[in-house]
Design goal:
The protein is α/β, with parallel strands linked by helices. It has 10 helices and 8 strands. Helix content is 34%, strand content 21%. It has a 3-stranded mixed beta sheet.
Length: 234
């Protein structure tokens, strides 16, 4: 069982700009490629920032009309440096929040959340730009087919990781929702199985209808009464 990596999901044909590219050229580039942001790289192809549509709009918002009818848009409210910038170096948001190709989609999603960004430039060991991963790329794991999810749960989680015989527990997957049915040897295996199934890429929900042969959770309680599941024991 493994999570998909950034390297598997990222876009490698990356549109990027140099620090000296002008406002108009950046806006044109975004429109031509149908993208909302572009990494800014230095002469060694290392990301130093990102220019987004929001950065461009922020500059536009700082422009005052001739009669000063929009005082709330005075440059002091939006950042004078960015309002006066004309190149990528001044317009960009920096430093760039980056990802590594060996990261899992979980790590990438957490980095996006922490940085408040929708995409991450992906860099190699030397810090050079090799790709971009977006929220849409991360969400692609939830487009996996039910069959692929079921095969991973059955083979990787139940059989290889937990050692459950293939005829003991079945995984039913419908619309990425997993239902486990069958009998496990020990009661303590049930929450473990559920947690591992939830960690499989593409799974949105897990429910279980599992019986157990041995109650190794409450067996130490002196007044414990055998449950319905305990009665499955031969």
């Amino acid at each position: 069982m493994r999570h998909r990596t950034v390297g598997e999901l990222m876009t490698t044909d990356v549109v990027n700009v140099r620090q000296d590219m002008g406002f108009a050229d950046i806006a044109k580039l975004l429109a031509e490629h149908g993208i909302t942001a572009v990494p800014v790289v230095d002469d060694a192809d290392r990301p130093v920032g990102v220019v987004s549509e929001a950065d461009l709009l922020r500059k536009e918002a700082a422009r005052l009309d001739a009669d000063w009818l929009l005082p709330t848009l005075h440059p002091q409210h939006v950042g004078r440096d960015k309002a006066e910038a004309t190149t990528a170096e001044g317009l960009m948001t920096s430093p760039a929040v980056t990802a590594r190709p060996e990261w899992t989609v979980v790590e990438a999603a957490r980095a996006m959340e922490r940085g408040g960004v929708k995409r991450l430039p992906v860099v190699d060991a030397a810090g050079r730009l090799i790709g971009v991963i977006s929220r849409a790329d991360v969400l692609r794991v939830f487009l996996r087919g039910d069959r692929a999810i079921r095969e991973e749960i059955t083979g990787d989680v139940l059989i290889r990781t937990l050692g459950i015989p293939p005829d003991a527990v079945t995984a039913h997957v419908v619309d990425s929702r997993v239902t486990l049915r069958g009998v496990v040897e020990r009661r303590s295996m049930i929450p473990v199985a559920v947690r591992l199934c939830r960690a499989v890429d593409g799974v949105v929900e897990v429910s279980e209808h599992l019986e157990y042969r041995v109650d190794d959770v409450d067996s130490q309680a002196p007044d414990a009464t055998p449950s319905r599941r305990d009665r499955l024991a031969p």
